[in-house]
Each structure stands twice: as structure tokens, then as C-alpha cells.
Design goal:
The structure is a homodimer. The first copy, chain A, contains 14 helices and 31 strands. By secondary structure, chain A is α+β, with helices and mostly antiparallel strands. The first copy, chain A, has three domains: 250 residues, BirA Bifunctional Protein, domain 2; 126 residues, YbaK protein, CATH 3.90.960.10; 100 residues, Anticodon-binding domain (Rossmann fold, 3-Layer(aba) Sandwich). In chain A, strand 18 and strand 19 form a beta hairpin. In chain A, 27% of the residues lie in helices and 28% in strands. In chain A, helix 2 packs across helix 11. At the A-B interface, strand 1, strand 2, helix 2, strand 3 and strand 4 of A face strand 1, strand 2, helix 2, strand 3 and strand 4 of B.
């Protein structure tokens, strides 16, 4: 393709509304434009990248034995009533009425549709297992779309669903998807961390997230540099490590703390370290209220709490409820004399003489000890921190970093097959529920994650496997007859070889053309300049910045070899 | 792929709710299922066909110089306010509100989005022409979804939009798309008629529809077997052919026709032929009312009427308005003494002593002649009929048949660029409006049209270019060691050659497997049966029904050659 004809509206200035590099670069390189908040359109270069990622995903899905189907975006309310999610899904789900007032949603995900189809069409163990997938547009009305395509409202996902006759079958399907994901991200040039993720109330089941380490990621990962353990923050277990202090238990004492509520305020007001406080958080858990205690410098892990309590809804109690329960304004809750159940993080077990709220507005209690109140249950209820040992090898402290979730695999079990009565007949003629797994990859987010991981001050550095084009040929001066004709010859010869190649035939300064080539991240730049008179041209690798001078005569062969070598590192 | 693993829920029975062959066969062959009225999901075989059609479209679009982009399905109301179509589009457009009560539509088409993007990104004549396209889901809330994917509510379209500096440029872009469409449908194995279509109020512009002749088509085409002229019914011109009758003008006469309103009723009541009546139709045309006269056995062509009157809205007047205007109940309108403008079809010019309504309930007038009332304008205002001569060569009467519209190309001119102020700067620095064209192909409907054209009593006959697989290998008896191992050898060898091949390894009767192979329309069936002991296998061409016996040793080579030969006929 000639750059003079290509629809590639690059921008010199950084768009002011883009906060992270991938967002800035996708706009600057003319890959996409915003049509509305969280809604983007993809221009030729951007769409080529998305399609390349899609094709890698498709090839690896097919290779794993998954079969591609295509569900609809519009799904009737009745389908979602069957799973119970019409009521559960919040405002994130776009809902719409047709001309006859029938209700539909725009699929934010497709468990319902797949289970419905399989329930209707598959009846015998002989037709199982099946892994079905699609590459489809998803719609989610995010409360706060941001970071470009990282969190947007209309995007492309590959979602797969496996149906097996038993847990052992699910293990096999799950492993197939796990392995396919490893291959997919390798081929996309992404360095991913595979982390254990929470599976909610389902005991024994597993779930993994494929995370791209990045400071702009919305999730936090805890991992161990020694043993390779990795889990997301929701899931990562905190060891119950007893510690003793020689300290003697002191006399409990009420202190006046006027309008001093937060740990920070208390630390500065009382001059006591945060870790000598115990925070008391009041939660509404389904239809009751509970209090949760964690050390002052720790955070309650609501996922762990939810799993412990086996509830589906959990939220911090409102101010009114807190006042009713504690008899004090918010900020002064404490466990002493509290009438609701108290759960405490393991760490609290080993504390002495700590500070808690007095359940009395403007007062706290000092020197509180465990015998001053009753704890219904101690458990791991806090987020892991860099102070914690690796829960797996215990040999060193964990590292915590942020990551972008690009893939997620999940053992669903019978959650949906039960709701849809999705059964098969086994060899003995008995009807049994199918066992499901689900597996997602965000296509657009994968593209953005690649940019986050692969860019420099000049622009994007696309891995050759997903680059919109593999080579860009740049005649330095298009008005120079020889430069121009040599450039076109090489361009055409490369096309003949099946290389995806651009030629920047624009009558622009070389600097402008080089800048654009770097910005849009084409893996190889072939410069045809003055040295063409000596039969020499230059090839630059965008990633390694390596420049080689090659002879004009065997330029095509040399370039094809460079491409092959570059591709080899992404092979699986 | 092994058929034993393939998700291919074929049905023996014809689904009762499917009225046309393509719909029946797409269900029976397990290509798709309905999720809701007019909303379908595509299973593996069906989705493969759609993707093959998409890829043919993509290749030919790219070859013509068009560039692929991807717009969003959700588009904000403001975008559609700019074109004025938010108000104009009826209930066919799905409208939706987000969590902040902002309004969006689900794109029924994308002129607005493309014009908006081009307006923002292209400013100079140097960046024109551009043809941009996408392959995207469209949403249209059809009043009456039917015939499977022929008229459904969520479907895939290729839509392209060209932007040129002038009409000459548009002619070139239009021709490129026209030629690409010819190639696309040829490659899909479709026999299409290219017909002139109406362009509305835009003088001089052109529009063509690509129609697949079929009795289940929703559009009617008039064409000439002599000269090849073809136009859709809305557009096809009726010649103004004078004819004389020796008849003398008789005296006008009122006749009592109690409760006799329709032409059929009048014919039987008065014993006079339909062609001796003149129908008077009252229309509301924008903000006024007009009467239109056509011969009793003709139909008013509302498109022609709309173009003549240069109005945007045209509809039959309601009963109340008719009564007020004519002074009579509906069914008794006539031109004599009518106070609104009367337009008449050319044919009416040559009629004598005809019957019209009397503008008096239960009365008609006989022996009416042109001097009994005033006609503001005679024009071509009726639908063409098999009585009419070809308007182009005049050498014989036209043939009328139904067709399925699979493609439509249209010179839009400045309709959208004006609304969006989509201008470019020309060589002299002047700002000028871009000239647009738009070009659509219905992907799902193309698949259905292929089936309508290519099927027999056994099932679908896919052209090899769009078939889900090219070859199906059928071991007659999978329990026969030799048959099974030879079949698998051939299957694997064909895969090695890049052939898309199925093997029906199911332990089913041969009859069941043959029936399924025919039903799903695989172009070549390779039967490995008893003759394998003699080193022979059989290859059957689904389309020609030709069967050849080939030697096992060079089976792969022979099959690959048959495939090549079969493909050759779809080459462009």
C-alpha cells in the first residue's frame, strides 16, 4: 500500500484527554478515534492490528479443538431471566426495547446464549466434550470509561465455553485453553504473568488471569520472585504467622478524640503508629450486618470476606446503619460491646494494647485486648502486602505490582447448566448436568497492552506478528528518480514475496516520514537514500534499533530473511 | 475436522416455521438457530460460510483500493442529529439510553459515522479520493422479520463509502465498486442481475441493485430479454405510447353503485373491464393533498410520484381526509369536480368513456372523458407490467420477475457531506464539499440467496468458494479396519495439501452419513467403501452429481485436481 493513499491521520501533538501511553499512541498513530465516551472507531492501521490478533486467537483456538460460532449481540430478556442475571446485572448492561416493547440486552457476555444453544442441541455424552468460541462485540456500560480501549463500552472479545461430562473432562478442557492462551500471548509478543484468581463461593474450582505487568493496570498482582507464585490481590493468601510481643496487657482506657476518625487522623492526633490500631468495618452481608477487624495499616479483602460468609452481596453499611449499630457517628466503631457478629483477620490474634473506636462519638479506646470482646471467627480477611511472605514457598516476601488483565479462564462448574437444565444422557441412560468452563480474551485491550509493553519515546514498537505492516520502504527523496524507482522495485518485489509492505511515496521531508514510520511502529524500515548510487540501502529494526546496510541486488532476500528471524522469536 | 467432534446438529424434519428453502436448509443443516424473532446465532458450519463470503468481499474490496476500517455499532444521537436522520428514521432504528440517559442508536447503517470521521481527518484534495469500508453488524428493528436471514434484525453488512473531489471522481469510485461487486458475486457462484434503481430526488445520479432472481425475493425486476435492460419496479420507465380508439365520446352518466368500491367489485357489478376504469388515489404529499389517476388495472408507482412532486413524505390520505376532500366515503373518489391538483399517468391521456368515482357515496360516473376535468400534469406514474415494451430497445415486452437484493450501490452526491460540512481544500485553496457514494452487500442474505439458487431435494449445493469444507471423506463402515485407515490416510493427506476436509468417522449407517453430506452441501464426497480392497475409492461432485472412481494410490492428487477444476469456474 502506498502511504500517499493510506488513510493514516497521524498527529504530532499528544491528545490532551489521553492519560496513558497506549491511548495516546493509538490516537497519535491514527489507529483509532473516539466517537463517544468509551466508544471508538478503528482506522485502517488499527483495524489491521486487531484482525491480526483475532487471527492468532482463532488459529490457536482451532488448534486446541475449539469450534467457532457466532452468537447475536441482542439477546432477549427471557434468556437472562433463566440464569437469574437479568435482575443481578447492574447498569453495566445496556437494555433496550424493540418496537413491540419486548426487552433485550446488548450482550456484556454470553454464558446464557451458549448454554441455551447447547442445552437445545446436545443431548448425549457421545457429543461431549465441546469447546465453542466466538469473536464478538461486547457492550458494557462502564461507569467510568477510561484509558482508551482499556476500559471502554464497546469492544471485541474472544469468549469460549467448554461443556464436559465431568470434572475430569473440565480439567482437560481448561488445560487446553490455558495452553492455548500461553501460545496466543507468546505469539502476540506479550510478557504475561499467569495469576491465580478468585473463584467466588465455588470450592475446588480454579481460575487464572493472564496479566500484563504494567503500572497503568487496574488490577494488582502479588508474586514471588523465588518460586514463581502469582495471584491477584483478591485471591493471594496471607499466611497466619504468629508473632509474640513481650508487652504486658495494659488497662483499657477511653480517650477523647474529637472529630478524629480516620487512621491517618488518629495517628497524628494520638502519636501512635497505624499498626497499633484495629479498624472496625461494618458490612451489610446479604440480610445481616457484621463487623470486621483488621490492623490499622491493612485493608479488608472483601472477596475473602464474601467467601468466608458465603454471601452474594456485600457492601459497607450506610452511615445510618452504622450509627444505629454502634450508637456513635461513623468513625468511632469498635468491637467492644458490639451486638453484631465480629470477624477478625488472623493478624489481630497477636496484637496487644491496641486502639479501637469506642462506639461513642468522639471517643476511642486505648489498650484494648482480645479478652475485651468476642470474635466469632478469625480468618484471612485482608489484602496481602509487601510485608507478607510468599504463601507458597515462604522463602521470601511477595512483590506486588499492577497488571492489565488480557485473559481470564474460569471453571464455572454447573452454575449455568443448572439454571438452564443443560443435561446430557450418560452411558447408563441417566441425565446429568454438563460441567462448564469459560475463557475470555479482550482483543482491543490486548492491542493496548502490547503498546504499554512495547513503545519508546518515538512511538509504538509492534511485534512483527501483529504489526499492521511488516516493512515500510522509505525513499528519502521521491523526486530523485533513482531513489524512487529502486524503492518501488523493492516494494513490488516484497509484495510478490507475500510481505506486507508499505511504501512512503509522499513528497515529504525524510524526517517527517521517518517519524511517522517510528510512530506507527512498523518492524522494518527500508531506507532508500543517497547510497543507492553505490548500490546500498539501509534496513532498520524498529525493536532492536539495529541498522544494517544491504546490497540492492539481493535486498529482497535479505529483508525476507530478517523478517523470518524476527518472526522466529514469537513462534510457539 | 472429524464429524464425530463437529458441532453440527442436523435435523431430519423440516422446521415448521420456515417458509422458504434457504431458511429451511440453514436450520436443517445445523448452520444456524433462532435466538429470538429475526435474531440468529451461527453454528460452526454456518459461520464458516459467512466468513468465506466476508473474505471474498474483503479481498475484492482491497483489490479495488478500498481500505477497511471498523466503526462502532453504538452511535450517539448527536451524530444522527447532524444528518437530520434521528428524526426521520422510524421504529426500524433501535434506540437506547446509557446509564447517564444519553441517547444512542444501534447502527442500521453508517453514513453518519463515516462522514463524521472523514470530515474530521481529511482536509486536502491531496488526501482524496478515499474508499473506506467495514464488515459490521447492523441492527434494524424490522416490522415483520421473516424468511430467516433474508429479513432479520441483526445481520452483517459490508458497507463502503467513497469520498471524491468531484462527480468525475465519484464516477470512477462508483465504477470500481460496480466492478468489485461483479467479481464478488461471480466468486460466490451467484447469478446476479444488475438493475437500475431509483435515486430519489437526485437528478443525474445513479444507483444499481445486484439482484438474485428468485421467486422468494421481495423486490420485482423488469428486464428485457432482447437488450438486457434491467431495472427494479420502482425505477423501470413506462413508455408513453399513444393509442387511438375509434370510439366516440359518449355522454357522462351517473350510476348507482351501492357499497361497490374496489375495481374488482365494480368489474363484477357493472360488467365492464378493469381497463375501462380510472382509479383516483388521494395522497398526502408533504403538506398538501393531490389526486393521482391510473388505469383501473394499473398500480400507482409511489417512487415516481414522489420524484415528480419532489416531496420527502408521501402516503395515502386517511379516510377522514378523503371524505373531506371528495365529499364522499372512501371508494367513490373521482377527478370530476375535485378541488385538489390532479396528476395522471400518461396512459390516461388516451382513454375514452371511462368509469370513475362520482365524489358521492355509492355513485360512480360512466363515460367520463378528459374534457370533464382538469389534469395538472401527465407523467409516467405507474408500475411497469408485462404489457409494456422495453423502454430501452422497444423491441419486445419486458419480463417481470422477483429478485433478492444482495448488493446496492448508490451515488449519494453531497447529501451527507453538506449536512456534516465535510469539505476539502482544493488546489486553489477553496473549500468544496466532498462527493460521496455508498455501497452495501448483505453477507447473511448473500448466503441465503446462494442456497435459494443452489439446492436440490437433498440439500444445499455450496459453490466450492464458500462451502464450509471442500471435501468430506466418508468411510462407509468405520468398523472395517481397512476402510477406516484408508479414509484417515486420505483425510490427513488432504489436510497436508491445505484442503479443507471433513471425515465422517461416526459409527452410523452409510445412508445417514451420505444424507448429511448432501444436506450440508460439501462439494466433494470421497467414499471409501468395499472397493477399497481393489484399491478403488469414489469421488462425487455434489453439484454435477458426477461420480468418478479413482485409484487409492494417487487419490490425493486426483482430488486436488478436481478441486482446482471446480474452483476455476468461479475465478475472476
Amino acid at each position: 500500500m502506498k502511504v500517499s493513499e493510506l488513510f493514516m491521520p497521524t498527529m504530532k501533538e499528544t491528545p490532551s484527554d489521553a492519560e496513558i501511553e497506549s491511548h495516546k499512541l493509538m490516537l497519535r498513530s491514527g489507529f483509532m478515534r473516539q466517537l463517544s465516551s468509551g466508544i471508538y472507531v478503528y482506522l485502517p492501521l488499527g483495524y489491521r492490528v486487531l484482525r491480526k490478533i483475532e487471527n492468532i486467537v482463532r488459529e490457536e483456538m482451532d488448534r486446541s479443538g475449539a469450534q467457532e460460532v457466532h452468537m447475536s449481540a441482542l439477546m432477549p430478556r427471557e434468556l437472562w431471566e433463566e440464569s437469574g442475571r437479568w435482575a443481578v446485572f447492574g447498569p453495566e448492561m445496556f437494555r433496550i426495547k424493540d418496537r413491540n416493547e419486548r426487552e433485550y440486552c446488548l450482550g456484556p457476555t454470553h454464558e446464557e446464549a451458549f448454554t441455551y444453544i447447547v442445552r437445545n442441541e446436545i443431548t448425549s455424552y457421545r457429543d461431549l466434550p465441546k469447546i465453542l468460541y466466538q469473536i464478538q462485540t461486547k457492550f458494557r456500560d462502564e461507569r467510568r470509561p477510561r484509558f482508551g480501549v482499556m476500559r471502554c463500552r464497546e469492544f471485541t472479545m474472544k469468549d469460549a465455553y467448554s461443556f464436559d461430562i465431568d470434572e475430569k473432562g473440565l480439567d482437560i478442557s481448561y488445560r487446553k485453553m490455558y495452553d492455548a492462551y500461553v501460545r496466543i500471548f507468546k505469539r502476540c509478543g506479550l510478557d504475561v504473568k499467569i495469576v491465580e484468581a478468585d473463584t467466588g463461593a465455588m470450592g475446588g474450582a480454579s481460575s487464572h488471569e493472564f496479566m500484563v505487568p504494567s503500572s497503568v493496570g487496574e488490577a494488582e498482582i502479588a508474586y514471588c520472585k523465588a518460586c514463581g507464585y502469582a495471584a491477584n490481590l483478591e485471591k493471594a493468601e496471607c499466611l497466619d504467622e504468629p508473632f509474640e510481643t513481650a508487652e504486658k496487657m495494659e488497662q483499657i482506657q477511653e480517650v477523647f478524640t474529637p472529630d478524629v476518625r480516620t487512621i491517618e487522623e488518629l495517628v497524628s492526633f494520638l502519636g501512635i503508629e497505624a499498626k497499633r490500631f484495629v479498624k472496625t468495618m461494618i458490612y451489610r452481608a446479604d440480610d445481616r450486618f457484621v463487623a470486621v477487624l483488621v490492623r490499622g495499616d491493612r485493608e479488608v479483602n472483601e472477596t475473602k470476606l464474601k467467601n468466608l460468609l458465603k454471601v452474594t452481596e456485600l457492601e459497607l453499611a450506610g452511615a445510618e446503619d452504622v450509627e444505629r449499630i454502634t450508637g456513635a457517628k461513623v468513625g468511632f466503631a469498635g468491637p467492644v460491646g458490639l451486638s453484631i457478629d465480629v470477624y477478625a483477620d488472623n493478624e489481630v490474634k497477636y496484637l496487644k494494647n491496641f486502639v479501637v473506636g469506642a462506639n461513642k462519638t468522639n471517643y476511642h479506646l486505648k489498650n484494648v485486648n482480645l479478652n475485651d470482646f468476642e470474635v466469632k471467627q478469625f480468618a484471612d480477611l485482608r489484602n496481602i502486602t509487601p510485608d507478607d511472605l510468599c504463601p507458597k514457598c515462604r522463602s521470601q516476601k511477595v512483590t506486588i505490582e499492577r497488571g492489565i488483565e488480557v485473559g481470564h479462564i474460569f471453571k464455572l462448574g454447573t452454575k449455568y447448566t443448572e439454571a438452564f437444565n443443560c443435561v446430557y444422557t450418560d452411558e447408563k441412560g441417566e441425565k446429568k448436568l454438563m460441567i462448564m468452563g469459560c475463557y475470555g480474551i479482550g482483543i482491543n485491550r490486548t492491542a493496548a497492552a502490547i503498546i504499554e509493553q512495547m513503545h519508546d519515546e518515538d512511538g509504538i514498537i509492534w511485534p512483527i506478528t501483529v504489526a499492521p505492516y511488516e516493512v515500510i520502504v522509505v525513499p528519502v527523496n521521491v523526486k530523485d528518480q533513482q531513489q524512487s524507482s529502486v524503492a518501488f522495485e523493492i516494494y513490488k518485489a516484497l509484495q510478490q514475496e507475500g510481505v506486507e509492505v508499505l511504501i512512503d511515496d509522499r513528497d515529504e521531508r525524510a524526517g517527517v516520514k521517518f517519524k511517522d514510520a517510528d510512530l506507527i511502529g512498523i518492524p522494518f524500515k527500508v531506507t532508500v537514500g543517497k547510497k543507492v548510487t553505490e548500490g546500498k540501502i539501509e534496513v532498520r529494526n524498529r525493536r532492536t534499533k539495529e541498522v544494517v546496510e544491504i546490497d540492492m541486488e539481493n535486498a529482497v532476500e535479505a529483508i525476507v530473511n530478517l523478517i523470518k528471524k524476527e518472526k522466529a522469536q514469537y513462534e510457539v
